[in-house]
Write a structure and sequence with these properties.
CATH topology: 434 Repressor (Amino-terminal Domain)
Number of helices: 8
Number of strands: 0
Radius of gyration: 14 Å
Helix content: 55-70%
CATH architecture: Orthogonal Bundle
Largest sheet: none
CATH class: Mainly Alpha
Strand content: under 5%
Distance between the termini: 32 Å
Structural class: mainly alpha
Mean pLDDT: 83
Length: 117
């Protein structure tokens, strides 16, 4: 039951447009807790966020245009998919909500560490 509560709390916090520093810290903590739970329960191979995005697009029969809203524009989608631009935290949060996937999908270990600095 804790997992569901953590996930629900994380989605509420990431939906805020202007989170406080304490809320941002809570997002990081909840993300780490969820990642730890999922890595123990459902180990999966490491994948770059852009590779996961490509997979989600393919599996859902979507085009770049279909996720332009989440990333801001079709040109941004193109830049991300070509590797010329990284997904931002906001992009990732919108994609998590769009595809109903775990935050760990886009906020892997490397992403969590980069956000702290």
């Amino acid at each position: 039951m804790e997992f569901a509560d953590y996930t629900k709390a994380l989605f509420k916090l990431t939906a805020k447009s202007d989170p406080t520093p304490e809320e941002e810290e809570a997002v990081e903590l909840l993300t780490l807790l969820i990642e730890r739970y999922e890595s123990h329960r459902y180990p999966s191979p490491d994948a770059e966020p852009v590779d996961v995005l490509r997979f989600l697009l393919e599996q859902n029969g979507l085009s770049q245009r279909d996720i332009a809203k989440e990333l801001g524009s079709e040109s941004t989608v193109s830049l991300v998919l070509s590797g010329k631009r990284r997904l931002t935290r906001n992009h990732s949060e919108r994609l998590i909500r769009r595809f109903h996937v775990s935050p760990a999908v886009f906020f892997g270990k490397g992403e969590t560490n980069r956000r702290r600095h």
